[in-house]
Amino acid sequence: MSSFLFQFLFLSLHTPILDFSCCFYHPKNTYFPQQKPKSPSSVMPKSNRIVTPLLFFLISTTFTYNCLVFASPVPEQSLKRPDPLRHFKPYNGVYDIRNRHYWASAAFTGIHGYAVAGIWFLFGLGFGSYLILKNLFGSCFRIVNYPHSFYIATFSLVVLFTLLAIIASSFVFAASKSSQKRANRLVDTVFGAASDASGAMRRVINSLVDMQALLRPYDPQTCNLLNVTSHRLRRESLLIKDFVAKTKHPSHEAVEILYSTTVAVVTINLMLLVAALVLLILHWYPGIMVIIFCCWILTTLSWILTGFDYFFQTFARDTCSALVKFEENPDDSSLRFIHPCASPSDSNNLLVQIGKTVHNFISQANTKLTELKAVLGIQEGNEDTLGFQEICDPFASAPNYVYAPQNCHKDAIPIGDLPNILSRFTCYKGNSSEECLVDGRFLPEASYVMAEAYSHSIQDLINVFPDLLSLTQCTSVKQAFSDIVVRQCKPFKTSVRMLWSSALSLSLIMTVLVSLWVAKTCRDRHRSFAKFSIVPKPV
After folding, report:
1. Transmembrane region positions (predicted)?
2. Residue 131 φ then ψ, to 5°
3. What pLDDT does residue 498 have?
4. Can you say whether the dihedral through the CA atoms of 310, 311, 315, 321 is positive or negative?
5. Can you spell out the DSSP letters for 150-185?
6. How far apart are the first and last CA of the chain?
7. Same structural domain for residues 156 and 305?
């Protein structure tokens, strides 16, 4: 009974008009139904009905946006900032990390730090030259007597600003570590989405290669199309991997360089602060002059870092704003990731077409299976005779053909497992017709091989459908961007803002403190102090 079922099921999927009499044994005929051999051209419409929607889908999604960076031709509100590369004319572009004018305009937002650093450095050169010339020509500062309270107040100010500098340095350490951690997490999230997209492409490519091998004997033309598409996808995947390899490491390096430079400057500055306080108490002025010189340079670097931190804050704000706009309206955003996302309408139509093709194919098989059960008198609940109840259809019915593999019956088998069952009823070339007749092996080997090819091709298409769905809907990108917007943007911007504000505070405090050191050193240098004394000896 089961042998008649599988013969009926297989032939019904490949024969437009099925003669029921061909399924039964007649003494004058061979056991196998006489079928006209199918040429490749006669098989092609069947395979094209399955594969062509996939080809159109892949080609349209792969080459809709051929970009490797954040960029978009969609008009968006421009960022009006001075662009140093265009003689400080306004930069009227959008957020675009491949555009050097965007980077120049964003970096220019930290001009307050760079400008103060330049002024402070030039003032130091001028003041240092003045002191050197004054000493060379033998002149000295006029000695003025001040009350003891003045010396106590001056020393108290030095101690106060030293403590403030130490506190500000602690905040810089904490904010720098926090911003480094959050920046690296954001970079990993973004490039993780790119890696996921590349992995999905790679799985699609592997499925296309498998389908080529299966369909080559029956449909060479479709195999050629699959080959072209797989090569194009492979090229896109390599471009994504190359972009990730070239960009991810430099991004982490930039974050690490900013963090390491900040930590190095602040650490050295802290050591010099403590040393300066000790030397002021000991009144060892040569050492104090060396520390003033070093701290002057470090204060200059601190102002430069303050400018860079503000630039970092600007970039963080721009990035999160672009991500929020992408969340609100992906089609009207300046943010395009290294990902071939198709337009929603086209991709949805193609996905529906693929779902419809697979659904109709499996539904036809299950319908024939039900009809044959009725003809053969198999009662409901006795499907164990066949080894399975139905073929799993992972797609819902019309009109949307939603992919829902969880709806399959527990006793249903994947269509890819159908050849395993058909093999028990296949008459191979090594068996004689009499042996096959006795064993109930009614299916010709050529028909079994063709059934295996189509079954596995459809199963490959079903297996890769989640990846196709992810690629068309940009799932990895949207999930990554949503995670950044919801969970990462606010703490990231807060940590970067804290880094800039603490660096600004440290720079201001060090500017005042170094000025106090210079004033105190010039005033106290020619006076006599006892060790650990704040007030000079009476003259």
Report:
1. 50-71, 106-130, 150-175, 257-282, 288-312, 498-519
2. -65, -40
3. 96
4. positive
5. HHHHHHHHHHHHHHHHHHHHHHHHHHHHHHHHHHHH
6. 125
7. yes
